[in-house]
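Hi,

Apologies if this is the wrong queue. I'm a grad student, and the batch job for Ribosomal RNA small subunit methyltransferase A from Fulvivirga marina produced an output file that my downstream script rejects. I'm not sure whether the problem is my script or the file. Here is the sequence I used:
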Amino acid sequence: MVKPKKHLGQHFLKDQNIAKDIVDALSADNEGRRILEIGPGTGVLTRFLIGKYADNLVLIDIDTESVKYLKKHFLDLNDRIVEGDFLKMNLRAVLGDEYAVIGNFPYNISSQIFFRILEERDKVIEVVCMLQEEVARRLVSPPGNKDYGILSVLLQAYYDMEYLFTVDASVFDPPPKVQSGVIKLRRNNQVKLGCDEVLFKKVVKQGFQNRRKTLRNALKPLNLPEEVKAQEILNRRAETLSVNEFVKLTNDIASGGNIKV
Ligand code: SAH
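Support response: The file is valid. Your script probably expects a header line. Output copied below for reference.
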C-alpha cells in the first residue's frame, strides 16, 4: 500500500459507496469527453471511473509512490497515468480542447487548483470534486453572506455551482481534521463577461482584501475616478455584490479612465 504523506495532503477515502456517489455525480454528457482525475492516490475513485470512461481517463498525481501503485493496478491506462504537479503541468497534449475534472483534491492547495481551472475555463466543462467542507461552502455561497469571497465570485462568473453532500472525516485514512464537502461546477455559456476581465479580477480581489470595509475604502489603492467614487454602490461591501454588479462596477471604473491594469 501507499503510506499517506501529510505534506501532499494525502487522505485516502475508504468508503466505496461515497467514491461511487462522487463518480456518479459527473453528468451523462461527459461520455466521450476526456476526464482528468487530479490526485488519484491509490485509485479509489479511479476504480469507478474506469468502468465508464476508461478510454478517456487521464490521471495526474505528484506522488511517485502513488503513481507506481496506479501503474501496477491500472495497466490499461499506462501512459495516461502522469506523474506531476497539476499546478504546473501543461496538459494540453493529453487533454485536448474540452475535458471534465474530478478528484478528491489535496486540501492544502485546493484554492490554487481552482485558480488554475479558471485559467483553463474554456476547456474545463465540468468539475466534480471533494474538498474541505468550509471551502466548498464558500465557493458555492451566494452574495450577502460572510462565506462569499474572491473565488466564489470568479468561479460563479463562469460556472453554475452546486453543493452536493458532506463527507465525514472518519471515512478517510488518515482522517483529516475537518469535514469534507463535494461540489459540482458546470461551465455556463458566458464566453466573455462583458467587461475588462483583467480589471474585473483586480476589482474583486481588491474589494475583498478588506472585506469589512466599504468598497469606497477597500478600492482606494485603485485610485478610482471621482465620478465613480460618488456612486451609491461604493457604500456597500464587496461581499454584497453579485457577479453582475461586479461587472457593472468594472465597466464604470474602466470608463472613468486613468486606471492602470
Ligand atoms: N483520490 C484519492 C487521494 C486523495 S488525497 C482518494 O480519494 O483516496 C490527494 C491526492 O492528491 C494525493 O494522492 C496526492 O499525492 C495528490 N496531490 C497532492 N498535490 C498534488 C499536485 N500538486 N498535483 C497532483 N496531485 C497532487
